[in-house]
Hints:
Elements: E1 2-4, E2 7-10, E3 19-23, E4 28-32, E5 38-46, E6 52-59, E7 64-69
Antiparallel strand pairs: 1-2, 2-3, 3-4, 4-5, 5-6, 6-7
Amino acid sequence: VARKGGKLYIQTTHEDSATELLPENADTFFTRGGGVGPLARVTFVRDRNGRVAEERVYSPADGQGYYAKKIK
């Protein structure tokens, strides 16, 4: 996940380009397709101090999902 200007983008290792994340609410975003998966949901999980600690991605198209801890 990367921020470019005022927008968030997600890109997996097998994708040629990033897919824009569109806000659903303060911590959940969705995609309109792209390599991540149609209508995938990305939820940012916060720690006790309110900082993002990890992301959870779920794609309803194939029922797959994954978790990733924040590294930066």
